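can u do me a favor
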């Protein structure tokens, strides 16, 4: 609404702009929808409706954000890669089998089972379970996760843009210091006279009266009789009260804007004017507000007694939290709607740097249109090189976050007001602090239920542990896929049991000798069910969180996984060679006194070997450098590994599915040899 002619009014718009104190509006000023008139009364004319209002523009920006989450993109890339490799190799195997007169249904059944076993069907389930368990731990740290995939993005966050009011600060004015021009006066004396210029027996009417009356001992005030009281006038910028003291003397006490009161102080203005103005200017440059107090006894000129300074101070833990965030590789920038001087002082106190720019260096954006893709190129470098921005609107916060994202930053945003909601929604990780408005919470991915930002650093550490577990699983799963595909690709194309050097005959098997070595379908089904069913325990694994933000380096992930898979394939092929060659003279089995194996036992031995390699690969996948024994596993993962490997061993020693599967039980020696 546009304010009409009349006396000025005070409007509280902290929830919209982040300003700490009410703002005075006069004729022609436009008051935003959702703000509150805290003093005065006046007519106003509607200036905007619907999408053209402050709220409407905010809602438009929130609705403009609609994209697939980062983690979903990663899973799609991993799955697409594995699916492509699987389809390619399995297709070659299927064509080769059909070309060698394998019955179509048998060849198709094997190809389908191998394809199902190699595609990471359980990846989404395992990763979701891991994040769900992690979200419970985050909840214990007072961080409620509204979007599970935000945990993965929080682990990679390397830029945190934070609102000031209510996030970095207490959102509550606190008295800081005092200055007096009366010899022997203390802070208590100045506070007492400031309180006398208020209705101390009634609830405070404004923020400054609340500030003063909460800080003073009211008992001595009752010795004074208040004869007249003139409430705060936005035009005169002062409050006055006439009182009678215990000695019967009548005096007037005034509190208000320092420059206004100094002009009225005929009693000592000449003596203090230069020092007074210099002090007030120094405080103003630092964004510190001052409340002057002057007194005039009946028949005497008014004298300046002194002034109180007040500020919305940083939370007690904010500075340490910012230092911890930087130690963990996460830079912090302030983005506030408050005045630049106040923002600079807050940054100075917090050690964030004082290079604060105003919003006039940023372009205004059309909230009904998508932001251009060149925002990062046009303004990104400038945004990166400053410590923060002041006097911004929601459109500016939205633009700043988008520019940083276009520059490749994994950007988090914290806030509590309606003005923060669009940026919270646009950020990779939107974090609503305690006491946030409904709009801010609805737009956020994580909601803090404890005051301040200290919870965020704890959440970063926890999320990086969760990320480590998911990355370990991805490496393991890709390695298993490589192992299965490469093993069967090699055995189908190059291992021919009835040819040299194996020379198996139909008399030895009691049936025609296969053209190539292929495990029965039942064994692949058991491997898939048993290992995928127990690997969920990786969600409870013991990991060491990274000291720097986590990022998915898929080429490295695929390289490590491929190496682990090929190592398992080489050992499997060597064992298969020894098993198929066991009936020949001079074989390794004969030299070691193991005796020869039946073809059914070779099947079972390779089932056990693939099953063991499949699961034990996880212990190598979870250690980036060094040996699998360098870091202890979690109890749940170790228990699951023991369970899966024991079950596989028992099945191989006592194969329960009969001769129809063409597999036979191993001897204890053969099982031990496979383990070795």
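np, heres the sequence
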């Amino acid at each position: 609404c546009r304010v009409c002619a009349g006396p000025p009014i005070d409007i509280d718009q902290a929830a919209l702009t982040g300003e700490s104190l009410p703002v005075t509006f006069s004729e022609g000023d436009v008051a935003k929808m959702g703000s509150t008139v805290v003093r005065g009364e006046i007519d106003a004319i509607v200036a905007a409706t619907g999408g053209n209002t402050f709220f409407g523009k905010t809602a438009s920006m929130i609705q403009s954000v609609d994209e697939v989450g980062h983690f979903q993109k990663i899973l799609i890339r991993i799955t697409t890669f594995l699916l492509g490799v699987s389809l390619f190799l399995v297709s070659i195997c299927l064509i080769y089998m059909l070309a060698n007169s394998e019955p179509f249904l048998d060849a198709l059944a094997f190809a389908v089972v191998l394809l199902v076993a190699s595609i990471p069907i359980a990846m989404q389930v395992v990763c979701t379970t891991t994040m769900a368990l992690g979200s419970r731990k985050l909840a214990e740290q007072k961080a409620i996760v509204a979007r599970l995939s935000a945990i993965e993005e929080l682990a990679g966050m390397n830029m945190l843009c934070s609102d000031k009011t209510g996030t970095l600060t207490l959102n509550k004015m606190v008295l800081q210091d005092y200055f007096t021009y009366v010899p022997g006066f203390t802070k208590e004396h100045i506070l007492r006279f400031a309180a006398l210029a208020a209705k101390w027996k009634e609830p405070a009417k404004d923020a400054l009266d609340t500030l003063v009356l909460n800080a003073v001992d009211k008992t001595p005030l009752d010795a004074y009789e208040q004869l007249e009281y003139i409430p705060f006038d936005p035009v005169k910028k002062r409050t006055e009260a006439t009182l009678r003291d215990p000695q019967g003397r009548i005096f007037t006490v005034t509190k208000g804007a320092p420059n206004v009161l100094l002009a009225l102080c005929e009693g000592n203005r000449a003596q203090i004017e230069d020092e007074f103005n210099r002090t007030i200017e120094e405080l103003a440059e630092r964004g510190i507000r001052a409340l002057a107090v002057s007194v005039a006894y009946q028949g005497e000129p008014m004298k300046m007694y002194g002034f109180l300074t007040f500020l919305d101070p940083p939370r007690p833990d904010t500075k340490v939290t910012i230092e911890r965030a930087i130690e963990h590789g996460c830079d912090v920038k302030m983005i506030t709607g408050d005045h630049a001087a106040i923002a600079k002082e807050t940054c100075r106190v917090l050690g964030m740097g004082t290079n604060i720019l105003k919003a006039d260096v940023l372009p205004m954006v059309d909230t009904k249109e998508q932001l251009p893709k060149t925002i990062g190129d046009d303004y990104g470098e400038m945004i990166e090189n400053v410590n923060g921005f002041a006097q911004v609107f929601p459109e500016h916060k939205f633009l700043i976050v988008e520019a940083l994202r276009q520059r490749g930053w994994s950007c988090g945003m914290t806030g509590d007001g309606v003005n923060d909601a669009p940026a919270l929604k646009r950020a990779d990780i939107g974090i609503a602090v305690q006491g946030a408005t409904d709009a801010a919470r609805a737009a956020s991915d994580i909601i803090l239920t404890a005051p301040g930002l200290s919870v965020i650093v704890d959440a970063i550490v926890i999320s990086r542990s969760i990320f480590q577990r998911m990355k370990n699983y991805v490496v393991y799963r890709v390695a298993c896929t490589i192992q299965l595909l490469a093993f069967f690709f090699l055995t189908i194309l190059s291992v021919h049991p009835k040819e040299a050097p194996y020379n198996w005959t139909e008399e030895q098997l009691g049936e025609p000798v296969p053209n190539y070595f292929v495990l029965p379908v039942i064994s692949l089904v058991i491997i898939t069910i048993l290992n995928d069913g127990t690997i969920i325990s990786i969600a409870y694994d013991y990991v060491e969180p990274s000291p720097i933000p986590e990022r998915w380096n898929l080429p490295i992930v695929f390289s490590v996984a491929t190496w682990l898979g090929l190592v398992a394939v080489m050992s499997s092929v060597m064992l298969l060679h020894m098993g198929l060659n066991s009936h020949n003279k001079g074989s390794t089995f004969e030299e070691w006194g193991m005796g020869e194996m039946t073809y059914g036992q070779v099947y079972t031995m390779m089932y056990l070997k693939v099953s063991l390699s499949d699961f034990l690969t996880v212990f190598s996948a979870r250690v980036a450098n060094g040996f699998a024994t360098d870091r202890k596993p979690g109890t749940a993962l170790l228990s699951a590994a023991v369970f899966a490997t024991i079950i596989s061993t028992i099945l191989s020693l006592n194969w329960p599915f009969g001769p129809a599967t063409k597999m036979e039980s191993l001897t204890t020696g053969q099982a031990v040899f496979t383990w070795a």
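The mean pLDDT is 85. hope that helps!!
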